[in-house]
Amino acid sequence: MTKIEQLRLAVIGDGKMGQAIASLAAEQGFEVVALLGERQVLPQGITKPLLGGADVAVEFTTPQFAAANVRGCVAAGCPVVCGTTGWDSARAEVEEEVRGKNGALLWAPNFSIGVYLFARIVEYAARLVSDANAGFDAHLVETHHMQKLDAPSGTARALADRAEKATGKPLPITSVRIGSVPGTHAVIFDGAFEQIRLEHVARDRRVFATGALTAARWLVGRHGVFTLDHMLGTSE
Known about the structure:
This protein is of the alpha/beta class. It has helices at residues 16-25, 38-41, 63-75, 88-100, 113-132, 154-167, 206-219, 228-231, and strands at residues 7-12, 30-36, 56-59, 80-82, 104-107, 137-144, 173-177, 183-190, 195-202, 224-226.
C-alpha cells in the first residue's frame, strides 16, 4: 500500500468548521502547523511566518475577511482552499490576482461530494421538468443553523445557478435559519395535483471538512483558480 505523503496544513478560521478540519487532519495525512483565529490574523493579516511553513492552507472564516486572507496566502506563496461564502463581489478580482501571481486557489460554496452530485441532479431534473412543459413551479428551500451569516447560502445560489442554466428561468430561494442544522437543501417542483421533491441533507459538518482536506491535498503543486469541477474531472 502506498504511504500518503504528510503535508503541513494551516487552518485559517478557528470556528466550528476550522475545528472540524483540524480534528480530522491527522487521519487524512496532514500536520496542522497553524490554527489561526481573529486574534492571530487581524493585527497584520496573513503572513508567511504566521502560516508556519504550511504546504497548503484551508480558509473558513467570514465574508469580510475572506478576500484579504486569500490574498495573504497567495502573497506568502501558499496554495489556499477557501470555503467561505458571501464574498462574491470581491472574488473575481481576487481570482485575477491569484492568476497574476501564479498562485493557487480552490473555492467552493460546499465541499460535500454529495452536494456536488446533487447539483448535477438538480440541473438535469430542472431541464427535464422544463422540457415537459407540464405546469410545474420550481422553488428551493435551504435550511441552516442560526449562526449562518449569508442568506441565501452559497450552496443555494450555486444550485439556483445550475437550474437557471438548464431552463433559462430563475429559481426562487427561501432561506430558513434555525437551531444547529448543518445544511439542508430541497428543490421542489410543484404541480396542480402532485409534487417532486429533491433533497440533500448534511448530517454532520465533518462531511465538509473531509471534502476540504481532499481539495487541499489535490491543490498542492498546482497553479491557477479551481473549483470542485476541476478536482473531480468534470469541468467543461
